[in-house]
Amino acid sequence: MAKCPNCGSDNPDYAFYCGRCSAELKDSSGKPYVTPRPVTPPPPRKVVPRLVEVKIATRTVNPMIGGVCVILAGLLAVLQGALALVGEAQILDMTGSGNGWLTFWGVFFIVVGMGAILLGSRAISRTGYAGALIGAVLGIMGVGFGIGPFLALGGLVLIALSREEFQY
User: For residue 17, what are the domain limits?
Assistant: First the structure.
């Protein structure tokens, strides 16, 4: 135990200052136990910015979802065209004459729908960006009971947003 030369209280051996009066504790020779170093803050560190490497997925599901939307729009167009042809056949059956417009539109919807299906599959396989876009436009043209254009438009947007993922 170190005795304080000022107040005489006992302090632990490792103490530099008295716990009671805060006087500096010295050994028998009159020297402080340890010369306390002045506390100086460490020099400021240089902050070197590091490049943060962010890995982004190279492939997304956008072309696949877009292709599925276009294919669904194409299927609806084909179904609508088939129903138009059936309707024309029933009109011919009942009346014995028809004007041919249902036949025209039935064939048109079937052809446009098949094009949308075939070119929409190019979006799923990520081959042929232009073909996938054309397929989406065909899906919009196919009407598909009024739902098809919205599906195809959604597919068009998803395909257009993922241009970098396609192999030309």
Answer: 1-36
